[in-house]
Design goal:
By secondary structure, this protein is an alpha/beta fold. The protein has 10 helices and 6 strands; from the N terminus they run H-H-E-E-H-H-H-H-E-H-E-H-E-H-E-H. A hairpin with a 2-residue loop joins strand 1 and strand 2. The longest helix has 18 residues. The chain binds S-adenosyl-L-homocysteine (SAH). The site of S-adenosyl-L-homocysteine (SAH) has 19 residues, from loops. GO terms for molecular function: DNA (cytosine-5-)-methyltransferase activity; DNA binding. It is an enzyme of class 2 (transferase).
Protein backbone atom coordinates (compact mmCIF):
# COMPACT_ATOMS: atom_id res chain seq x y z
CA UNK A 1 0.00 0.00 0.00
CA UNK A 2 2.92 2.34 0.58
CA UNK A 3 5.13 0.92 -2.16
CA UNK A 4 5.72 4.17 -3.95
CA UNK A 5 7.63 5.58 -1.00
CA UNK A 6 9.98 2.66 -0.40
CA UNK A 7 13.60 3.42 -1.32
CA UNK A 8 15.28 0.79 -3.52
CA UNK A 9 17.86 0.09 -0.80
CA UNK A 10 15.21 -1.06 1.69
CA UNK A 11 14.85 -4.63 0.46
CA UNK A 12 12.66 -5.92 3.30
CA UNK A 13 9.83 -8.21 2.27
CA UNK A 14 8.74 -9.33 5.76
CA UNK A 15 7.99 -7.73 9.09
CA UNK A 16 9.70 -8.69 12.29
CA UNK A 17 7.95 -9.87 15.43
CA UNK A 18 5.15 -7.41 16.21
CA UNK A 19 5.88 -5.62 19.44
CA UNK A 20 3.89 -4.20 22.30
CA UNK A 21 5.26 -0.68 21.85
CA UNK A 22 6.22 1.48 18.89
CA UNK A 23 9.14 3.61 17.75
CA UNK A 24 9.29 7.14 19.11
CA UNK A 25 8.41 10.17 17.02
CA UNK A 26 11.96 11.36 17.72
CA UNK A 27 13.42 8.36 15.93
CA UNK A 28 11.23 8.69 12.84
CA UNK A 29 11.98 12.40 12.68
CA UNK A 30 15.73 11.74 13.01
CA UNK A 31 15.51 9.34 10.06
CA UNK A 32 13.61 11.88 7.99
CA UNK A 33 16.04 14.68 8.65
CA UNK A 34 19.15 12.55 8.08
CA UNK A 35 17.77 11.51 4.66
CA UNK A 36 16.70 14.95 3.61
CA UNK A 37 20.34 16.04 3.91
CA UNK A 38 21.41 13.38 1.38
CA UNK A 39 21.04 13.49 -2.36
CA UNK A 40 20.01 10.32 -4.15
CA UNK A 41 21.63 7.41 -2.43
CA UNK A 42 22.52 7.96 1.23
CA UNK A 43 25.97 6.79 2.37
CA UNK A 44 26.21 3.09 3.18
CA UNK A 45 26.56 3.68 6.95
CA UNK A 46 23.44 5.85 7.03
CA UNK A 47 21.50 3.23 5.09
CA UNK A 48 22.66 0.47 7.38
CA UNK A 49 21.71 2.30 10.53
CA UNK A 50 18.29 3.31 9.16
CA UNK A 51 17.60 -0.23 7.99
CA UNK A 52 18.55 -1.50 11.41
CA UNK A 53 15.92 0.75 13.02
CA UNK A 54 13.34 -0.09 10.34
CA UNK A 55 13.79 -3.80 11.01
CA UNK A 56 13.80 -3.41 14.76
CA UNK A 57 10.62 -1.32 14.86
CA UNK A 58 8.78 -2.56 11.74
CA UNK A 59 8.79 0.92 10.24
CA UNK A 60 7.10 1.50 6.89
CA UNK A 61 7.73 4.27 4.34
CA UNK A 62 4.66 6.45 4.15
CA UNK A 63 6.04 9.55 2.41
CA UNK A 64 9.23 10.99 0.98
CA UNK A 65 11.96 10.07 3.50
CA UNK A 66 9.18 9.49 5.97
CA UNK A 67 8.92 6.32 8.03
CA UNK A 68 6.18 5.49 10.50
CA UNK A 69 5.15 2.65 12.79
CA UNK A 70 2.28 0.40 11.74
CA UNK A 71 -1.11 1.72 12.76
CA UNK A 72 -3.18 -0.37 15.21
CA UNK A 73 -5.72 -1.20 12.49
CA UNK A 74 -2.90 -2.45 10.24
CA UNK A 75 -1.66 -4.71 13.03
CA UNK A 76 -5.21 -5.98 13.58
CA UNK A 77 -5.32 -6.92 9.90
CA UNK A 78 -1.91 -8.63 9.99
CA UNK A 79 -2.98 -10.63 13.04
CA UNK A 80 -6.23 -11.70 11.39
CA UNK A 81 -8.62 -9.79 13.65
CA UNK A 82 -11.74 -8.04 12.38
CA UNK A 83 -11.23 -4.36 11.64
CA UNK A 84 -11.53 -2.15 14.74
CA UNK A 85 -11.44 -5.20 17.02
CA UNK A 86 -9.45 -3.29 19.64
CA UNK A 87 -10.83 0.15 18.86
CA UNK A 88 -13.23 2.07 21.09
CA UNK A 89 -14.64 0.92 24.40
CA UNK A 90 -12.23 3.20 26.21
CA UNK A 91 -9.04 1.56 24.99
CA UNK A 92 -6.19 3.97 24.26
CA UNK A 93 -3.71 3.70 21.39
CA UNK A 94 -0.99 2.57 23.78
CA UNK A 95 -3.23 -0.12 25.20
CA UNK A 96 -4.17 -1.26 21.72
CA UNK A 97 -0.51 -1.68 20.75
CA UNK A 98 0.17 -3.55 23.96
CA UNK A 99 -2.74 -5.97 23.58
CA UNK A 100 -2.08 -6.53 19.89
CA UNK A 101 1.63 -7.10 20.44
CA UNK A 102 0.85 -9.87 22.93
CA UNK A 103 -1.80 -11.55 20.86
CA UNK A 104 -2.09 -14.77 18.90
CA UNK A 105 -2.12 -14.59 15.11
CA UNK A 106 -5.70 -15.69 14.42
CA UNK A 107 -5.19 -17.57 11.15
CA UNK A 108 -2.28 -19.53 12.58
CA UNK A 109 -4.28 -20.58 15.61
CA UNK A 110 -7.26 -21.41 13.38
CA UNK A 111 -5.03 -23.63 11.28
CA UNK A 112 -4.02 -25.64 14.34
CA UNK A 113 -7.55 -25.82 15.73
CA UNK A 114 -9.21 -26.75 12.44
CA UNK A 115 -9.18 -30.46 13.41
CA UNK A 116 -11.78 -29.68 16.09
CA UNK A 117 -14.50 -28.87 13.61
CA UNK A 118 -15.22 -32.49 12.69
CA UNK A 119 -14.54 -33.76 16.19
CA UNK A 120 -17.15 -31.47 17.74
CA UNK A 121 -19.94 -30.94 15.20
CA UNK A 122 -22.25 -29.58 17.89
CA UNK A 123 -19.78 -27.10 19.27
CA UNK A 124 -17.36 -26.92 22.16
CA UNK A 125 -16.94 -25.66 25.69
CA UNK A 126 -13.71 -23.77 26.12
CA UNK A 127 -11.53 -22.74 29.03
CA UNK A 128 -9.51 -19.84 27.70
CA UNK A 129 -6.66 -18.80 29.98
CA UNK A 130 -4.86 -15.45 29.56
CA UNK A 131 -7.40 -14.67 26.83
CA UNK A 132 -6.02 -11.23 25.94
CA UNK A 133 -8.05 -9.86 23.06
CA UNK A 134 -9.49 -13.27 22.30
CA UNK A 135 -7.22 -14.65 19.58
CA UNK A 136 -8.41 -18.19 20.36
CA UNK A 137 -12.10 -17.26 20.52
CA UNK A 138 -11.94 -15.36 17.24
CA UNK A 139 -10.11 -18.26 15.57
CA UNK A 140 -12.70 -20.83 16.70
CA UNK A 141 -15.53 -18.61 15.55
CA UNK A 142 -13.79 -18.07 12.21
CA UNK A 143 -13.69 -21.85 11.77
CA UNK A 144 -17.44 -21.99 12.25
CA UNK A 145 -17.14 -23.97 15.49
CA UNK A 146 -20.07 -23.20 17.75
CA UNK A 147 -18.97 -21.88 21.13
CA UNK A 148 -21.38 -23.47 23.59
CA UNK A 149 -19.64 -21.81 26.51
CA UNK A 150 -16.39 -19.95 27.01
CA UNK A 151 -14.84 -19.35 30.39
CA UNK A 152 -12.32 -16.64 29.68
CA UNK A 153 -9.71 -15.64 32.24
CA UNK A 154 -7.95 -12.32 31.63
CA UNK A 155 -6.62 -9.82 34.15
CA UNK A 156 -6.88 -6.69 32.00
CA UNK A 157 -10.27 -5.04 32.10
CA UNK A 158 -9.61 -3.36 28.75
CA UNK A 159 -9.00 -6.76 27.17
CA UNK A 160 -12.03 -8.30 28.86
CA UNK A 161 -14.17 -5.51 27.42
CA UNK A 162 -12.75 -6.12 23.94
CA UNK A 163 -13.65 -9.82 24.09
CA UNK A 164 -17.08 -9.10 25.55
CA UNK A 165 -17.92 -6.57 22.85
CA UNK A 166 -16.67 -8.93 20.10
CA UNK A 167 -18.89 -11.65 21.65
CA UNK A 168 -21.93 -9.38 21.53
CA UNK A 169 -21.22 -8.17 18.03
CA UNK A 170 -20.93 -11.67 16.60
CA UNK A 171 -24.34 -12.70 17.95
CA UNK A 172 -23.05 -15.65 19.90
CA UNK A 173 -25.75 -17.91 21.27
CA UNK A 174 -23.52 -19.56 23.86
CA UNK A 175 -22.43 -18.20 27.20
CA UNK A 176 -19.34 -16.12 27.97
CA UNK A 177 -18.12 -16.06 31.53
CA UNK A 178 -15.21 -13.78 32.24
CA UNK A 179 -12.94 -14.04 35.22
CA UNK A 180 -9.95 -11.85 36.04
CA UNK A 181 -7.08 -13.66 37.69
CA UNK A 182 -5.87 -17.20 36.96
CA UNK A 183 -4.32 -17.27 40.42
CA UNK A 184 -7.78 -17.12 41.91
CA UNK A 185 -9.13 -19.93 39.81
CA UNK A 186 -8.84 -22.61 42.46
CA UNK A 187 -9.86 -26.25 42.49
CA UNK A 188 -13.32 -25.59 43.94
CA UNK A 189 -14.21 -22.96 41.37
CA UNK A 190 -12.94 -25.14 38.56
CA UNK A 191 -14.89 -28.13 39.80
CA UNK A 192 -18.02 -25.99 39.94
CA UNK A 193 -17.51 -24.80 36.36
CA UNK A 194 -16.81 -28.30 35.11
CA UNK A 195 -19.98 -29.57 36.73
CA UNK A 196 -22.02 -26.70 35.35
CA UNK A 197 -20.88 -27.16 31.73
CA UNK A 198 -20.27 -30.90 31.74
CA UNK A 199 -16.51 -30.40 31.33
CA UNK A 200 -14.24 -28.51 28.96
CA UNK A 201 -13.47 -29.76 25.46
CA UNK A 202 -10.54 -27.42 25.03
CA UNK A 203 -8.18 -25.58 27.36
CA UNK A 204 -6.22 -22.97 25.47
CA UNK A 205 -4.01 -20.02 26.32
CA UNK A 206 -0.60 -18.42 26.25
CA UNK A 207 0.77 -17.28 29.58
CA UNK A 208 2.72 -14.00 29.63
CA UNK A 209 6.13 -14.31 28.00
CA UNK A 210 7.60 -10.96 28.90
CA UNK A 211 10.25 -12.43 31.16
CA UNK A 212 11.27 -14.91 28.50
CA UNK A 213 12.90 -14.38 25.14
CA UNK A 214 11.70 -12.21 22.28
CA UNK A 215 11.64 -8.53 21.63
CA UNK A 216 8.78 -7.80 24.05
CA UNK A 217 10.64 -9.03 27.10
CA UNK A 218 11.24 -6.74 30.09
CA UNK A 219 13.73 -8.97 31.87
CA UNK A 220 15.40 -12.30 31.42
CA UNK A 221 14.18 -13.84 34.67
CA UNK A 222 12.72 -16.71 32.68
CA UNK A 223 9.87 -18.83 33.99
CA UNK A 224 10.52 -17.62 37.54
CA UNK A 225 9.93 -13.99 36.46
CA UNK A 226 7.02 -12.06 37.94
CA UNK A 227 4.74 -12.50 34.92
CA UNK A 228 6.08 -15.61 33.27
CA UNK A 229 5.76 -17.70 36.44
CA UNK A 230 2.02 -17.67 35.72
CA UNK A 231 2.91 -20.56 33.44
CA UNK A 232 2.79 -22.69 36.61
CA UNK A 233 -0.82 -21.63 37.18
CA UNK A 234 -1.60 -22.76 33.66
CA UNK A 235 -0.03 -26.10 34.51
CA UNK A 236 -1.89 -26.32 37.84
CA UNK A 237 -5.26 -25.53 36.22
CA UNK A 238 -4.72 -28.05 33.44
CA UNK A 239 -3.94 -30.67 36.04
CA UNK A 240 -7.13 -29.93 38.01
CA UNK A 241 -9.26 -30.05 34.85
CA UNK A 242 -7.75 -33.40 33.85
CA UNK A 243 -8.22 -34.85 37.33
CA UNK A 244 -11.78 -33.66 37.84
CA UNK A 245 -12.85 -34.69 34.36
CA UNK A 246 -11.03 -38.02 34.69
CA UNK A 247 -12.99 -38.76 37.85
CA UNK A 248 -16.29 -37.79 36.27
CA UNK A 249 -15.98 -40.10 33.28
N1 LIG B 1 -3.33 -15.19 23.54
C1 LIG B 1 -3.82 -13.89 23.97
C2 LIG B 1 -2.78 -13.04 24.65
C3 LIG B 1 -1.88 -13.72 25.64
S1 LIG B 1 -0.74 -12.58 26.38
C4 LIG B 1 -4.46 -13.16 22.77
O1 LIG B 1 -4.76 -13.77 21.77
O2 LIG B 1 -4.66 -11.94 22.84
C5 LIG B 1 -0.93 -12.93 28.08
C6 LIG B 1 -2.17 -12.32 28.70
O3 LIG B 1 -2.22 -12.71 30.07
C7 LIG B 1 -2.22 -10.79 28.70
O4 LIG B 1 -3.38 -10.38 28.04
C8 LIG B 1 -2.26 -10.41 30.19
O5 LIG B 1 -3.08 -9.29 30.46
C9 LIG B 1 -2.84 -11.67 30.80
N2 LIG B 1 -2.53 -11.87 32.23
C10 LIG B 1 -1.45 -11.46 32.94
N3 LIG B 1 -1.54 -11.84 34.21
C11 LIG B 1 -2.70 -12.53 34.35
C12 LIG B 1 -3.36 -13.17 35.45
N4 LIG B 1 -2.81 -13.19 36.67
N5 LIG B 1 -4.56 -13.76 35.22
C13 LIG B 1 -5.12 -13.74 33.99
N6 LIG B 1 -4.55 -13.14 32.91
C14 LIG B 1 -3.35 -12.54 33.08
Amino acid sequence: MTKKWWPSWDTRTHFNCLQTCIASARLTERIRSSLSNCNDLPPSLTRQSILHECRKWNLVWVGLNKVAPLEPDEIEMLLGFPKDHTRGGGSSRTERYKSLGNSFQVNTVAYHLSVLKDLFPNGITVLSLFSGIGGAEVALHRLGIHLKAVVSVEISEVNRNIVRSWWEQTNQTGELIDLADVQELNGDRLEQLIRRFGGFDLVIGGSPCNNLTGSNRHTRDGLEGKHSSLFYDYFRILDVVKNVMGKAS
